Amino acid sequence: MSISELFREIWAFVKPYRVLVLATLVLTLIGSVMAQVNAYILRYTVDEVTVLVEQHEPLKKGMHLLFVISAILLGKELIYAAVQYGQKFFGEKLRIYISRDFSQTVVERILSYRMAFYTSSENESGKLQARIDLGISSLTRLVRNFFIDILPLFANALIALIAMFTANFWIGMVSLAIIPIYYWVSVVQAHKLSGFRRRMRHYRETKSNVIISIIESISVIKSFTREDLEADKHEKIQYEITENQMRTHQIGFLFDSLKTFLEQFGVVLIIILTAYFVLNGTMSIGMIMFHIMLFNNVSAPIRRLHMIYDEVNDALIYSEAFFNILDAEEEQETSGNYMPDTIVGNIQLSHVNFEYPNGTKALHDVSMDIPANKITALVGLSGAGKSTVVNLLDKFYQPTQGNITLDGVDLQEYNTNWLRKHIGLVLQKNHIFNGSISENILYGDNEATQEDVELAAKKAYIHNDIMALPNGYASKAKLLSGGQQQRISIARLFLKNPPIIFLDEPTASLDAVATEQIKKSLDAIKQGRTVIIISHSISQIIDAENVIVLDHGRVIEQGTHDELYKNQSTYYEIFQAAANSLNLEKISDTLNE
Ligand code: ADP
Ligand code: MG
After folding, report:
1. For residue 16, is it within any domain?
2. Number of domains in the chain
3. Ligand 1 centre from 361 Cα, in Å?
4. How far, in Å, from the CA of 387 to the mean position of ligand 1?
């Protein structure tokens, strides 16, 4: 991304605040013009004092001069203080507002992105978070640089340069000659640093990811006593960062020194030149200080401009990454606009092939019928592609080939949000948010009343458990046990009341008692809906009216439990294995005792 492209992207965000920008700019300009005044006053003072010293009673006449000069200087400082206050205040306001807008926009954007965006290794949580944070802080810095700082600095340098040329052509030429050399040095510097900067971004993102993954997996790290390993991982990346930082600063300092030397070289040239003019009688002594101050008025803004140029180059790397997130059109979820009045619930997959973005082929020529208002069980060993089918039905991903229809209409033609409003999903890992139990159940329907919430909780057989808690429905949901959390997510589903429900191993992580309790709430929610259940629990499979067996991404059997059992094929084997693992003989012995 070039600086001008970046500028255009940023302008879209700055535009709503252009009045604020203008106000800040005007104040900054006033401030910078006023900064020029000092040189003139100094020259005037030195020259006047020189004349006075040669006269009678210099002190008496000098008092008047001193008074005028003090009044002008103090008055100027007073106005300057007011201008600076306004400038800082408006500038800060702009920065705060814009950073808020950047933040809000990027969050809204990524929420609209498809699942593949989140599962990509480029976007692991720590990396994404670092990219967004660093991007926003770089961008707000750029907004300052582009819209507040640059123009007054240019104006300043230009005014000072004109002042120098009016003072003396040769003095003006010295300043003018320094600028392109200075500029060239800065360009070389930026070029030398760009590789380091790019690597730095990568390191920072990786580091942030390392830290987040430590926090997320702390119980595994501790139980395997792998603290050293994790510390080493961090040390390695930290070492790279340190090396990189040292090199960046080393190069930066080298070029800074070069630039300072150039500047001092200019000062020396100006002193020599002015002294020459003073000695040959064409200039007064006051001119030496005057010229040095004017040169300073040229070189200070130029120096600032180059610092900004350097900052812009640094910020460019992070802003680029930020806008890559913002402008990832291809990550946008697709949606049709078909929204029928009712859903019957007949689902059909025909010749579906699916490959995950990382290249894993998960489904091969899968065709299946899922009848409305019936329970369909997907059975198969782990990795067979069962969850993948559910992912496709929820439009989290699109089939690579083949198509999926709901009530005869291709899923792609449905409005995605509308479709998801009519589908309920319960996963093995229950999805409980930070917040109270009420809030968590209300996620199913924001408009619901407390009564509705309690009714849903009763249907999910969790109401009594909640009432037993000291804070009841206001208790933190994350503190509930796994089985209780799972029933909260079923209560949420009762509130949502969708005609189609997908249950992906809803009891896989639960103990026998919890499974038994949830079976009751699952049986309740299955009534009169199209249900797909993925489960390893025999009791739940037997209840299904339709069973589909998947193996390595292919459908190998489809029918009722009795039919498939009689087939004596894969289903029979899985069923036998599951039954044997229960040690039914001993169980029945015990129960019959
Ligand atoms: P099941 O639910 O039957 O256990 P899945 O549908 O989860 O199996 O997985 C099917 C295959 O797809 C597996 O080989 C798995 O590794 C792969 N897979 C699952 N999710 C992803 C993903 N997000 N990205 C890449 N590959 C995946
Ligand atoms: Mg699965």
Report:
1. yes
2. 2
3. 9
4. 7
Strands 347-355 and 401-406: antiparallel
- 120 C-alpha to ligand 1 centroid (Å): 14
Residue 406: C-alpha distances to residues 41, 338, 358, 535 (Å)? 83, 11, 28, 23
CATH of the domain at 412: 3.40.50.300
pTM: 0.78
Shared domain check, 393 and 355: yes
The sheet with strand 409-410 has its strands ordered as 361-370, 347-355, 401-406, 409-410
Find the Cα–Cα–Cα–Cα dihedral 337, 343, 345, 347, rounded to 10°. Answer: -20
Cβ 576 under 6 angstroms from ligand 1:
no
Same domain, 100 and 203: yes
Write the residue with the smallest CA distance to atom 6 of ligand 1: 385
Q: Which residues of 97-115 are buried (b: 16+ CB within 10 A; e: fewer)?
A: bbbebbeeebeeebeebbb
**In this structure, which residue's CA is closest to atom 12 in ligand 1?**
362
- Specify whether 366 is located in the same domain as 305: no
CA distance 591 to 593: 6
Each residue's pLDDT expressed in tens, for the chain with a length of 593 residues: 788 888 888 999 999 999 999 988 888 878 877 777 777 888 888 888 888 888 777 777 778 888 888 898 888 889 888 988 998 899 889 989 999 999 999 999 999 999 889 988 888 888 899 999 999 999 998 888 888 888 878 888 888 888 889 888 988 998 889 889 988 998 899 889 988 988 998 999 999 999 988 988 888 898 888 899 999 999 999 999 999 999 999 999 999 999 999 999 999 999 999 999 989 988 888 888 888 888 888 888 888 888 888 888 888 889 989 999 998 888 888 889 999 999 999 999 999 999 998 899 999 999 999 999 999 999 998 899 999 999 999 999 999 999 999 999 999 999 999 999 999 998 877 678 888 999 999 998 889 999 999 999 998 889 999 999 999 999 998 888 888 888 898 899 889 989 999 999 888 777 777 788 778 888 888 888 999 999 888 888 888 889 999 999 999 999 998 998 898 888 888 888 888 887 777 888 888 87
Residue 338 has what DSSP assignment?
B
Please tell me the residue having the least CA distance from ligand 1 atom 7. Answer: 387
Residues 281 and 351 in one domain: no
Which structural domain, as residue segments, surrounds residue 32? 3-329
Q: Which atom of ligand 1 is nearest to the CA of 389?
A: 6
Q: Specify which residues 405 forms β-bridges with.
A: 348, 410
